[in-house]
User: Fold these one by one.
Assistant:
Number 1:
Amino acid sequence: MLPTHETNRCPERQPVDRDPSNRVMPASATADESGSRRLAQQRPLKYTLCVTLRCNLTCSYCYVGKSGATMSLAMAAKILDFIFWNASPGRAIEIGFFGGEPLLEFPLIEAISDLIASHPGRQRREVGLTLTTNGTLFSTAIADYLKASGVKFCVSCDGPPHVQNMFRRTLEGRDTAAVVEDNLRLARLSLPAVLVNAVYGPKTFRHLPETVDYFSGLGLRQIYLNPDFSAPWTETEAKALPEIYRAIGERYISWYLAGDPHFVSLIDSKIAVLLRGGYHPAERCQMGRGEMAFTPDGGIYPCERLIGSGVGEANRIGHVDRGLDLSRLSWRLATCGQANPECVDCSLRVCCMNWCGCSNAFMTGYYNRVGPFLCASERAAVQTAFEVFTVLGKRLGPVFLHHLAGAPQLNSRLPQGSGMGKPTAASVNSAVADFETPQADKQTTMRGPP
Ligand code: SF4
Ligand code: SF4
Ligand code: SF4
């Protein structure tokens, strides 16, 4: 039995490393570390504005502590000052509108967007906006705003009606599938791109292949799949994961071969990592450094998934009025799954997201202790990505070269005459050999967190 959510409480406090030398890169950084630092400098800084903790849904796996708290425009202005005056000059920034349900405060979002557009600190800096919504609220006015402001639009939807309605219901207990599907269709017709994010848990993960088919049928081509790490996963489900992920991989391959590639996060992100020989240190968890979230009252959190109710001291690392509390910046604990002895010798270590602090905290209560479900999921995801890469590489050549940069784009096949050169059997075989069955050399079995 894997740990259940009853045992998965986040700790009130994490031990803090007070040695400043552990928080900065030493002067004698290796070439790899220097490259990593360059990569870190190229990555956009990510900020999430939790504009309201209100929501019109009551999803059973929700990790947001909902309340009536809503950000004032004056507080948003302070947060933007904090962001723009503290971010390294010239560094790209991504600002996400989040909630609760952010579109309950659509006029506020428009007003904040105007503040962002006119902020003096944004000069000569690339600024991207995203909005994550539950998909129940959409209108022509919202579509016009999203287009005019170039906002990336991401809808949370768990899949076809019988899956969506299982956990994503209104405050009154009503189904949401019909309205979300209507809005997805409308959004797809009105916007250049619509991202969709499905959360899966022990009761829904077997529907994942059907879920990606459903999204594909709606014309959606950017599909994000995220497990509910706080759910009571058991060994039975962990054992079934490879088959489910493989079924998604088969669909991915057939869409690709049909000339209609889909971006599926589970596969594309791992192919990118395989191609680059693992996650660079700078790509790992950026919580509290390259990534922060702000609550309606101006509280600062290391990651939006750790906001909780947005009050109290657990996980809070500062306030825009007082700045960051360095002693609370316990991000370093999330740099690796070092607390798990199984990870130390694992051959998949470099390709594993065992450093995602909030996923670990949801599973085990500690930022740096990996839960068995994440271990099983990462193994299955790497295996699936490897199989997809191998099949498509052999059939089509080096189609994933654009993944090398670490940010898989819209997963387009290399255009004809792109100058990439026709792949040879030798080049494909050599690429495949580099990643030859990564887990074959050493099988480690995770028995649970220490
Ligand atoms: S829509 Fe989002 S914020 Fe609202 S209940 Fe569902 S998961 Fe929570
Ligand atoms: S696959 Fe499992 S054992 Fe290997 S690094 Fe990841 S969490 Fe650790
Ligand atoms: S804790 Fe996980 S989700 Fe949050 S910033 Fe780190 S890697 Fe990203």
Number 2:
Amino acid sequence: GESASGAPPCSGRKNEPLGPEAKQHFVSARAPEEEDRGGGERERESARARERRKNMFIQKAWRTAAFGLYGFTQFTKSGFVEHAKKFREEDMQIRLDGKNCLVTGANSGLGYATAQGLASHGATVYMLCRNKERGETALNEIRSKTGNMNVHLEICDLSSINEVKSFATKFSSLEKPLHVLVNNAGLLEHKRTTTPEGLELNFAVNVAATYTLTELVMPLLEKAAPDARVITVASGGMYTEPLNTNLQYSESEFDGTKQYARNKRVQVALTEWWAEKYSNKGVGFYSMHPGWADTPGVSKSLPVLSEKLSGNLRSNEEGADTVVWLGLQPKEKLVPGTFYFDRAEAQKHLKFAGTAASHEKIGSIVDSIRSICNLPANP
Ligand SMILES: NC(=O)c1ccc[n+]([C@@H]2O[C@H](COP(=O)([O-])OP(=O)(O)OC[C@H]3O[C@@H](n4cnc5c(N)ncnc54)[C@H](OP(=O)(O)O)[C@@H]3O)[C@@H](O)[C@H]2O)c1
């Protein structure tokens, strides 16, 4: 039957938590003036929610538009040519003989150009690749192009955190100081893919492996202090996303481009966090944006951009220029935690984009990454 107020009946069971129906009953049973006040408050709250949604939508649209404009004018080849007018030749006349560099994803695109660039400055380069055949081909090419025989191949599939850990143990057993770690390997996978270890693939390679590898080779980096540095190849794509604690993109509709942008935002915030955490260890942490370069990765994952900008994308060497530059510069010239673009400090947030405050979440994100990767809790 109906209840006295005419509202839908409650189930009548004692101590049952109030469901939505029951709540509705409760509200209708109040005095009329209370109901008016309650109704007015609800109206105002839903107006505020509408306003927040509208602002978020405008902010998102603004971010995308500002990123597009910034990108098309600066990230392209013409942007590089323009910025290169300010480059100083002497910056690149530094040698790295006797210094050890580890470059991930070194068989292709920017990683290849980075490994070649560092090798041409005399560094001992360890090329971390997942595929032996592709790795060997790249290794032989780089040795023959640079004449530097101190270039070596390391095999590791970074989508497996267990492999990253084994690699770090094996590499650490060489007991060599590590002067430069370049976290370059990365991907943009549009389809939601889960690795055999249960991680979302973009997150696994771009974030989990980057974090785990860096933390596990810290003792080697410290051996190379005060000269040591970690350069993480992030992306301007991160301008479109704030830092998000939803690391593995649990939303039902997967958007790989968005997930990639979120991953890159994590890399930039992580770099800031590392710079602060390890400020007394003599290891410098820098993230960077290579601009838009014509790499196998871009033509595979962003075919439309690749086609639209055909002829105006950067060469692999131009994309890797700032990575090599960061590897060569005396540490005093570099600002820890900074995001670099074309050999200069760049903004981490676009104006009015509303992304800046999100970096406060990095501490809890680090805790989550450590737990996902089965690393002991952060000391
Ligand atoms: N090109 C650009 O315009 C651009 C712009 C912004 C940022 N970036 C960043 O630059 C970095 C390099 O990208 P790219 O454009 O040079 O792409 P790329 O040509 O596809 O190179 C990516 C490299 O990462 C390696 N890699 C991918 N998954 C791996 C895994 N599970 N284990 C080990 N290695 C793995 C690839 O190995 P395989 O060859 O075996 O696949 C390859 O060597 C990425 O972090 C990317 O996000 C690029």
